[in-house]
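Following the same procedure, sequence and fold were stored together, as reproduced here:

>
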Amino acid sequence: MKIFVIGGSGIVGLPTVRALRRKGYGVLALAPTEDDVRILREADADVLPGDVRDENLIAAAARHCDAVIYSMKIRPLADWIAADRLAVPTLLRQLTGSGKRFVYISGANTYGDTGRTEVDETYPPNDPPEYGAWRGYKEMEPLVLRSTQDGVHPIIVKPAQIYGDQRITFRLGWIVDGAAHYVGDGSNLISMVHAHDLADLIVLALERAPAGSIYNASAGRPVKWKELAEAVSRGYGWGGTATSVTVEEAKNSIGIGIGNHTRDICLSSAKALALGWTPKWTDVLANPERWLKD
């Protein structure tokens, strides 16, 4: 069985490619750049050089593979949304009537501010307009789910805040000049998921999830951003201290992820656990030096 992975060199995609290969799946991964080609070959994937906006290319790959995992993120934001609007409908049209699985990686940010109670997949999207970075997810999710009517087997996975990859650690502790920071008083709660655990859930959903399913991905209790920044500081040997910054100060560095730092996003993953998911990383505050090395 061969899986077409779009976004396979990213924070979500690369661990997923590795998890697929460990389980014996063939992987064809889209590679927009020479660096992506190198990274994906090192992960033992077959590589398809090209851009997600090449409709003919991605449609042909989807036609010749047995399933598709879509986790593409492009900067700037306008290009990301435009790429999704082009690529996702193209892929779903190609999969029409095939019964093939299409796993779309969305984001918990679409829930908006959940308050301090963990919410499940039935919680309605409520993303404030000032955090419009996630409107692409909100637009794509209904489109993906409707494809069940056209003979596609769609699945959506909604990760909490991801950790376990150096490329995103700067957002967890807003690292500047060898110090960790948090926004405001740092009391906002955030659910977390390690990138490797998320990859395991994506593969599990690919194998077992019913058509039209949505799964939150979080492991362990939600933590305060101040606690998280202090853990980053401990992990880097900076003494466990972190400093508050204002929203305006943080925006220039964190960019479209700023909304995560200023509201509560608390998820329940009971549905994923019932599917058989067994996350290994359930306490982000314990031994941060381990996951900061990944």
